[in-house]
Amino acid sequence: MNKNKVILVLEDELPLLDAIKSKLAKSGFEVVTARSIEQAKNHIQDVENIDAIWLDHYLLGKENGLDFVAWCKINNDKCDRIPIFVVSNTASPEKVQSYLKFGVEKYYIKAEKRLEEIISDIKSSLFIE
After folding, report:
1. Phi and psi dihedrals of 27, rounded to 5?
2. What is the pLDDT of residues 42-76, one digit of tens each?
3. Which residues 6+ apart lie within 8 Å of 83 measured at CB?
4. Per-residue pLDDT tens for 31-49?
5. Could you please report the per-residue DSSP string of 15-75?
6. Which residues fall within 8 angstroms of residue 121, CB to CB, at 6 or more apart?
7. Coil vs helix vs strand at 6
8. How far apart are CA 4 and CA 68, in angstroms?
9. Counting beta carbons within 10 angstroms of the beta carbon of residue 74, is it exposed (0 to 12), middle (13 to 18) or buried (19 or more)?
10. Closest by alpha carbon to 66, among 39, 32, 104, 31?
């Protein structure tokens, strides 16, 4: 059903990354993973068709998720229309507003949402039943 949908997951915590990848794969998605902004940028350039991005705010390296969203939405025609789902441990009102101003699809606090709920939202955004 959604075998052709590719999700790029940016998460630096390996156990969580493995859990997210496993849940998405069981839901029929093809999953590409990155633990840093640099890896994610390389995937954007190299992977043919990324349909959605699952993004943690804090990642390995100097840049954070907001830096990646700014690069995607402002500087990169290949990913400026890809829906981005931010999943983070923290959510100051300023941070959430910054992400929303850049046009992310949704912002989640990890502790408040189950993986299944976020995956369901991604499916809805991609018009998958």
Report:
1. -90, 5
2. 999 898 889 999 999 888 888 889 999 999 988 77
3. 51, 52, 53, 104, 105, 122, 125, 126
4. 999 999 999 999 998 988 8
5. HHHHHHHHHHHHTT-EEEEESBHHHHHHHHHHSS---EEEE-SS-BSS--HHHHHHHHHHH
6. 85, 105, 106
7. strand
8. 24
9. exposed
10. 104
Amino acid (one-letter) located at 122: I
Class of the domain covering 6-125: alpha beta
Residue 69 corresponds to which amino acid?
V
pTM attached to this predicted model: 0.92
* Structure token digits, residue 75: 């500087």
Angle between the N-to-C axes of helices 37-46 and 65-75, in degrees from 0 to 180, rounded to the nearest 10:
30
